[in-house]
Design a protein that fits this description.
five-stranded parallel beta sheet, alpha/beta, globular
């Protein structure tokens, strides 16, 4: 799979709220990504993001409890590890990918990310069932 086509480039910028994001040397836009959760799914997503050079997505942050226990040496040194959601929300992250699961603190963090103008990706069925319409409303603002 290659990067977005010219046709999809517009819809991708819409996905990040018309926000001006970084530009790569080849002129393509780049999006900074934060992972919230670094278990089995989170570490696999991180590996894919870091191994693919043909993508405009750049992993910049990993948020997890007990970072010292989870930190790995195969991630670029430019990736910032944190246990504090404020580090992610105050950064230049464009997309927050939630792979933590559960309702709390996930719900609060996703609400704060949306309120901060970040795009959010989640497959958290419990969260969507519990407060999906509210989150969609926050995302539309």
């Amino acid at each position: 799979m290659t990067g977005p086509s010219k046709r999809n480039a517009r819809s991708n910028s819409d996905a990040v709220g018309e926000k001006q994001v970084g530009t790569r040397n080849d002129g393509a836009q780049s999006c900074n990504v934060a992972l919230v959760g670094f278990g089995t799914v989170g570490s696999s997503v991180a590996r894919i993001l870091c191994e693919r050079s043909d993508t405009h997505l750049r992993l910049t942050h990993v948020l997890n409890r007990n970072v010292a226990r989870k930190k790995v040496d195969w991630l670029p040194s430019s990736v910032q590890w944190t246990e504090n959601i404020d580090d992610v929300l105050s950064s230049g992250v464009d997309i927050v990918v939630e792979v933590m699961g559960g309702l709390q603190p996930t719900e609060d963090w996703i609400r704060r990310a949306l309120a901060s103008g970040k795009s959010v990706v989640t497959a958290n069925k419990q969260l969507i069932a519990h407060c999906g319409p509210e989150l969609i409303g926050l995302a539309a603002r």
